[in-house]
Amino acid sequence: MGRTIFQTALALAALTALPFLAPAQDAPAAAPRFTERHSRTTADEPATAYCDFGRKFSFQLFTAPGPASEVDVRVETTAAQGTWSIDGDVFTYAPRAGELGSVRRFDFTLRHNGWESQGKTIYVQVKSKFLEITGNLLKGLLVSIEIFLLTLCFSLPLGLLIAFGRMSKIGFVRQIFRIYISIMRGTPLMLQLFFFYFGPFYLFGLPITGAYRFVAVIIGFSLNYAAYFAEIYRAGIESIPLGQYEAAFVLGLTKGQTFFRIILPQVVKRIVPPVTNEVITLVKDTSLAFAISVAEMFTAAKVAAAAGTTMVPFIVAGLFYYVFNFAVAWGMERVEKSLDYYR
Fold first, then answer.
1. Which of 104, 127, 150 is the last residue of a domain?
2. Is the four-CA dihedral 293, 306, 303, 217 of positive or negative sign?
């Protein structure tokens, strides 16, 4: 009796468990399927949607064996302020500037002929392409400013020393500096950068490191602009009448006192305009540092333009160069006005 009751209970338990042991129903062969693109998008690694320049975030959401219009797509989202739409199998989202920096979540479900797919979630982070480009260009601008300032710090005093050598009474010394100035002014600055970067390796077998790129840029720019400044200095010094040297000698001033107290202040006043021209040219020439892969502003603009297939980075870089030059010209003009008492 007890054995019969046990067998009956076991049979009822087996019948009750049958629905749970049955295999899950697979999607029909003709059912639409989500595409693999963005299938791994998570809240930690969201896709990117840009909210400026009229950009829209779009991608093919699913594939269907038949017309995509026959598939019913349900979309659920939270806090999305932009506009989204589904055209056939393509999902499009146009974010607003107010969503900048936020991450939006979209939940999708496909329905077709009474069948419903499992949900798919995609996270989209709203960014500004303009701010990204501007940020990268500002980083490059800092490198350009660094090249500009270091070049002036080394080339201005070096140019004065070269000017003294160019005016030396010793013919041999004078010819050496004359040849140096001729070479530095007669060859392209880009070629000189290549020489100072690759020269140590080919001439002395020294290894080339990434850190040496910036050093080579400073060396090349400083030696090149020192040659130009030397000729400006020389022209300014030789423009001073000899009578002032004679008057200083009569007053008992030494050569050093004569130069630094009488001659040099007048020279500075006279050479400010041509020096300003060279300084403005230096601002633009910093873009040549890209030749040996120094990531200054022009390099950042090229990378951004190539990545986004747009001219906007070049336009923004041009504005930065103009503002930079405008600030330099304004500063040099203030210096020139401060020397008006030498009229």
1. 127
2. positive
